[in-house]
Amino acid sequence: MFIPQFRARRIRGSETFRRMVRETSVSVNDLVYPMFSAFGSGIRKEISSMPGIYQQSIENIVAEAKEVLALGIPAVLLFGIPEAKDAIGSDAYSDTGIIQETIRALKKNVPGLAVITDVCMCEYTDHGHCGLIKNGDVDNDSTLELLAREALSHVQAGADMVAPSDMMDGRVGAIRGVLDENGYDAIPIMSYAVKYASGYYGPFREAAESTPQFGDRRSYQMDPANRREALREAASDIEEGADIIMVKPGLPYLDIVRDLRNEYDLPLAVYNVSGEYSMIKGAAERGWIDEKRVVLETMTSFKRAGADIIITYHAKDVARWLAR
Ligand code: PBG
Ligand code: ZN
After folding, report:
1. Distance in angstroms (rounded) separating the CA atoms of residues 309 and 287
2. Mind listing the pLDDT tens digit for each residue in 287-313?
3. Does residue 324 carry a pLDDT above 90?
4. What separation in Å is there between the alpha carbon of 301 and the centre of ligand 2?
5. Topology classification of domain 24-323
6. Residue of minimum CA distance from atom 11 in ligand 1
7. By CB neighbour count within 10 A (0-12 exposed, 13-18 middle, 19+ buried), where does 114 fall?
8. What pLDDT is attached to residue 208?
């Protein structure tokens, strides 16, 4: 009979040994928690497709942010739902916009928590696209100006980092330029460098009320079939001054996370998006999967693929589970 020479099981026989040879670990330091700030007061409305995630008015955002900080999570990623939307997304770059007011409230009441803001137009435009519309499509270069204004306005309100998610060509350079000209050379940019046109954003669009009113985002977000193009997208954002690059969505694109990790030395983030969250929550609610086990396995897969930072709606649960 064949006697195996290599016995992989020797080192798997006890939790102590498994712990000693474990190659990947997840830490609370890796997590970023996304939040949806809605205009008004007394609002705390659960997203039906995202159990446990809410649209909240500022006082409730502040209350939850305190909880996030107490759990040891270093940062939140803010999205805004303005009072009114228009064709040019005016609220996005208004000093009294929903995000600007939220940033000020967070910096005042929860100063230890880093505030990262999503820089995009789709939450603020009545047509739901990520930029200005010209001839039935999003116009790249006129959108750059608005994105730069939006980012500057977030930073002036106190944002610690900005995260452009629009996928216009040149936006990292445009934002970097305007921030530097205004004395904010110390504020980092986390670029959604590799963002695919994904069906996994469905629940988010309910949360942010940002579904495009016509067409889709395929003329600016990446084709899910493309892998080499991810390297070109990342290269251009890095050249333009990105400090952190991101891959989004997460689980269906772990090959891309690994490609970027192998190619670049910059900190790498992955966005575990709304649809990924909904699938786990939905299956767990039905008792089909063990939520804690599946979530922690998913977080481990991001780290194993090479991510440093995980943006996830599971962040509070993960922080609690890791603390025990
Ligand atoms: C806005 C934006 C989206 C997400 C983050 N920023 C939606 C989109 O591009 O349609 C998706 C986040 C998620 O699904 O959790 N550009
Ligand atoms: Zn957008």
Report:
1. 29
2. 999 999 999 999 999 999 999 999 999
3. no
4. 27
5. TIM Barrel (3.20.20)
6. 201
7. middle
8. 87
